[in-house]
Every structure is written in C-alpha cells, then in structure tokens.
Amino acid sequence: MAEFSAHTVKSFDEDIAQLRAVITRMGGLCESQISDAVDALVNRNVEAAAVIVENDKRLDALEAEAEALAVRIIALRAPMADDLREIVAALKIAGVMERIGDYAKNIAKRASVVAQAQPIAPAVIIPEMARAVVGIIRDTLDAFVDRDAAKASAILQRDQQVDEFYNSLFRSLLTFMMENPHYITPSTHLLFVAKNLERIGDHATSVAEMVYFTATGQRPAERPKNDFTSTIYAPQ
Amino acid sequence: MAEFSAHTVKSFDEDIAQLRAVITRMGGLCESQISDAVDALVNRNVEAAAVIVENDKRLDALEAEAEALAVRIIALRAPMADDLREIVAALKIAGVMERIGDYAKNIAKRASVVAQAQPIAPAVIIPEMARAVVGIIRDTLDAFVDRDAAKASAILQRDQQVDEFYNSLFRSLLTFMMENPHYITPSTHLLFVAKNLERIGDHATSVAEMVYFTATGQRPAERPKNDFTSTIYAPQ
To answer: Residue ranges of the PhoU domain (chains A, B) (predicted)?
Structure first.
C-alpha cells in the first residue's frame, strides 16, 4: 500500500523519466550487442555469439516494459498533446531499439558459418563500420537524454559514412566471389552482416530525427542517402 | 465550425474506426506494392519499378496520418486501459506496414540490376514466395478488421512455409553462384529480394500476433521459425 500511494503521488515528469531510462538502457544494450556481435564474428568466437543471441531477449523484454509503462502513464495522467507526442516518440524509439537488437542478433548468428571459412580481406572494414554505427547510437542517446536538437541534427549526416562503408564492402565482396568460388559462402554472409550494419545506421539516424522532432516540433530536412548497392553490378 | 462540432460529437468507436481504416488502406497498399515489385522484377520492367519506389511515399504519409489520429484520439478521449492498448497496437501495426513497404521498395530497386543479367532458374520461386506473403498480409488484415482471434491464430504457422521457400532459394542461389561467376551479381540481388520477402512474412505474422493479443489479452505461444539460412554453408 505504501508503495502504491508513493507511486500515485509521483509526478508526470518522474513517470516520463522512468520511461526514458528504459530506453537509455535499451540503447546501451544495443551498443554492446553490436560491438560484441562483430567481435564474435571477427574472432570466430562461436560461444560468445551464442550468448549474444540469448541476450537479445533482454531487449524484447525492455521493449515490452516501455510499452506497458507508456500505456500506464497515458491512462493515469491523460497527458496533453505535447506530452503525448513525447510518449509516442518514446514508444517508437523503443521499437527501433528492439529492431536494432534483431540486426545485432542476426550478425551473431552468422559467426559460426564465417568461422568455418577462410578469412577474407574486406572483412576488416566490418569492425570499422560497426564502430561508426555504435558511435551514432551513443550520440543519439546523448541527444535523447539531453533533449538536444543541435546534437541530434549534427548526427543526421553521419549515416552517409556508413552507407559509403557499405557500398565499398558490397563491391569488394562481389569481386572476391568472382575470383574464387570458395569465397562465395563467407562473402554472402558478410554481405548480410554489412547490410545489417547499414540498416542499424539508418534506424539509429531515424531516432536522431525523432529526437530532433520532439525537441523542436519541426521535421529535419530529408537526409541524403548514399546506399546505392541495390544498383551495383559487379565487373566481370 | 460546423465541421469542428460534427467532429467533437463523433463517438470513440467512430474515431477508432477511422484509425483502423487508415491501417486497412496501408495493408492493401502493401499487398499491391509487393506483388507489383515482384512483377517488375520478373518482367524486367524498370519503369514499373520506378513507380513502386515513388508509391512508397504514400505508405509513409499514411503512417504519419495514423500517428496523428492516434495522438488526437488519446488527447480528446482519454481512453481507459483496454482502448488505449488497442490504439497502441494500431500504432505499432501502422509502423510494421510502413516497414513492409520499405522491403517492397527495396525489391523494386533491384529490378534494374536484375534486368541487366541473364535469367536464373531459381528466380521462379520468388513470385510463389511473394504470393505466400501477400496471402499472409491479406488474411491478417481480415483478422484485424473482424477482430478475429481464431483467424489470426490460424495465420501464425504459415510463416514457416515462407521460411522454407527462403531456405531453398538461399541454397539454390549459392549453388548457382558457385557454378558460374556470371550468376554472382544477379544471384546476390535475388538473395536480398528473398531476404526482403522473408522479413515481410515475419513482420506480417507479428501483426497477426498483435491482432490475437488485442482480441484475447493473451500472447500466442512462441511460433517456430524455420529460417536457418544464417548457418547455411554451400557445398563446394
């Protein structure tokens, strides 16, 4: 009972802070899941990869927690439009973080196949690409915590670097496959890993857009995309 | 003014019906985008593919409309927990439909590269796979419109067929790439097309799970997944 009355006198701001804390935890977990998945892939550590796949359930549980919290806050507080928009944005961000977790899990799942194959030179770009997307997530979460539109806006261009990594990796992997059929299986899986990282970069940047929108009420200008891989035809 | 007072006397049920109608439109548009994208790919119709890419903006606009409607309904009606959960579910479904649209757009974008290459035999599975996922979306929307838990539950197993198509296509395309380097580029793009269809099937099935949950308050049992492609190593 004491707990219940303590709960009911909590302010709306405290409720929102609790919801935002769940999202910050999701973001931190996404960062470690991506770094760990790429480490497991590069170091051919199949056991570590299995742990990452298992850990993804924590992100699913945190998303469900964010949703339950949001519904409770809305039902208890009947917030006005601006506060509601913030809650809806928080829900969407939680959904994006859960998806980012799925992409990290998919990278980890490919570690065992890649571990069976010969190392491929272009694979060295993957940890760099992972660092770039983890940096975007970290800075996006900082902008989210500080409700800082300028910080969010500064992030929006960085997804282009990720797309450039992806384009370059896509071309090199196709070339490797052409040269030697033994490279086809590992290259195919690395193509999907690169695609997963490209998707993570895109989703993290969409969170920066939401942070910007929530802070300013304005949509940022449409950001340029640099992913041209859907039209790449390898030289033969 | 007349419009405003007409609006304010509308019932909560009418508001929800309007939100659900937006989602039904999104679902219908997803079905046609997927079918049209696969037709453009198979028929090497690059002009049709460009129209599909352009049409995706309508799905983005409908998602924004669903979000604005949901925020307005919550702000005006201060709905109780059950109704709120239905609105939150509708928001999530709109988000999933927007993502499904993105996958269809990505399929369309690959049409021009695939059109430059020699036809590949395993590509004949792609229209079959597309029909399977479009069927899942159509039946999921029927279950959503009728709030029919039994119908939603019947859909949950069907994603396994889609995963089986994907496994089979993944293996055949790897084999084709091994046999002839000329097949590497088109096969790679068809692998991504197949992956997009697999993701669409998975997302559409997650909507069926949400429909089931909204209708019954119970989460369905965890569905078995049949996508083993992340561990496939091609024979050499």
So the answer is: 23-110, 126-211
